[in-house]
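Lecture notes, unit on protein representations.

Consider one protein chain, 368 amino acids long.
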Amino acid sequence: MPVAFGNYDVHEPIGSGGMATVHRAQRREGAEETRAARAEIALKRLRPELTALPDFVQAFLDEARLARNLRHANIAQTYDFGIVDGTYYIAMELVRGPTLARVLASCTAHKTEMPLPIALHLLAQVCDALEYAHSLSDPSGVPLGIVHRDVSPSNIIVSEGGAAKLIDFGIAKAATSHVRTKTGFIKGKFGYVAPEYLVGAEKRVDARADLFATGVVAFEMLTGRRLFQTQNDIETLERVRRLPIEAPSKWRAVPPQLDEVVLTALQRDPARRWQRAGAMRSAIDKVALAVGDIPTNEDVAAWVRGVAAPRPEDTSDASAVSIEISLIEARPFGENVLGAASSRRRTTLAVGLLALAALAAVVIALLA
């Protein structure tokens, strides 16, 4: 049975993290509402024990205010936020469909490749979402300076309608944010962070960091292989910093123009990358025209249903369609961390989780 929470009827949980929980919910009858809000939503609530910690509350509110400004077909929408009986909440669009991470895992499990036109279609939509977010200004025309900082397959949902939806602006950087990242901390998943993070250049991180992450996502979509991510965080960061980056065509037959698109996004020097998501999108469009097979969202949806559908040999739930909670990481980093790798010091990780869009911290203590 649903539980009343303010103007919402709260149903089953659909995700949980170290800072928040997310439930399926619906607007209660008789409450004033928009047509969109009457549909099922994802109700995210800050854990009660964190309401006494001002930084966590402020980060949660920053996320809500930022996300409320985002109105784009390829970004999950935020409808409402507030506080009920001391509990802070955000009411968000419930995007039904698998994450791109789940789709790629299904491709690997079934030994199949994502069709090139499908990959280009989804990448173009991710670029559209980023171009919109990066270019957004407040009502007075002042740029908001939004940087997502956690573009990764687990934060891209392929909706039941076949559209890519970028989620989780919980650790986004924006000029309006009140909580600042501590010097020497990395926000985002290590396998997708831009190299400029690794020199402690937090103030220098801008929208081009999201394009580097998009390049990593593109490489993985095209090749079915992880680019930087390993089981060891130190090794992953070393790979981000130094690994020679090979063209996707080494692993799969793709047009040379597509190699150029991906390798430009993956330039370690931000000045040599794509400078805008819109420019990357335009380059992807040219490749798509050369390939000559332009899918619709309906085509994408049909393919995803096929690859994500359970097969007789499956024992996993890789086809489950629901909003998913991504791991958001914020970990200290410095030259001493890389030095620890060479000296083979042991690393102890304390991992903090965030559901869909909040700030979390994971502290790495290096032990001699």
